[in-house]
Amino acid sequence: MNAPENGLHGAETDQTYARAGFGAAVPRGTSPVLVVVDLTRGFTEPEFPSGADLSAEVEAADTLVRAAHESGAPVVCTAISYTPAEADGDAIAWLRKAPGMRSLRDGSAEVALDPRLERHDTDHLIVKKGASAFHGTGLAALLTGLGADTVLVCGATTSGCVRATAVDAVQSGFNTLVVRDACGDRARGPHDAALFDLQAKYADVIDLGEGVELLAKAR
């Protein structure tokens, strides 16, 4: 589910964004943290109503995770999970718009991290209630405590939780990179649109090779 190459959005679109001053390069630091957004079974396996076959994206994300483990770069995984009271109640506004997310309940198969991802006991887990991994969580403080100067984001879905997390990463003061090969969605159109918008305004959208290289050089 790769994004279109630069320049394929049409000359008028490219000129409009260039005139507005979008698309500058994001600095690359030497203390990256990898944030793996919601690669849980409910999103990565097509057997679940909220899922799709994200096998290729999980494999790419696992490549990033292994590179981080080898260099000692921190890994933060996220998962959406609701208590019965939250899932069955009306207190969480997002669930009124997206009632399908009510199946993401504590202890269910849907909220388990995809077993194809390498996990270490030193990896961090952020449990969230909404799209962004920053909203209502301690992620910003955790990244600061880990000494992050660059945040690499991957996961699912590109147009939802990945985009929301990347936008909030920038707004929290972190240089942000999104690894396109390790991001997946339920449909190509939203995936491509989200990557286009992220590249223009919030993050650099990079390929898997660059992501692995940056993590391998972590100090």
UniProtKB/TrEMBL annotation:
Cross-referenced InterPro entries: Isochorismatase-like_dom (IPR000868), Isochorismatase-like_hydrls (IPR050272), Isochorismatase-like_sf (IPR036380)
Keyword Hydrolase: yes
Superkingdom to which the source organism belongs: Bacteria
Alphabetically ordered keywords of this record: Hydrolase
Single GO MF descriptor: hydrolase activity
Tagged with keyword Kinase: no
Positions in coiled-coil regions: none
Pfam families in UniProt: Isochorismatase
Boundaries of every Isochorismatase-like domain copy: 33-208
Name the record gives this protein: N-formylmaleamate deformylase
Organism: Amycolatopsis echigonensis
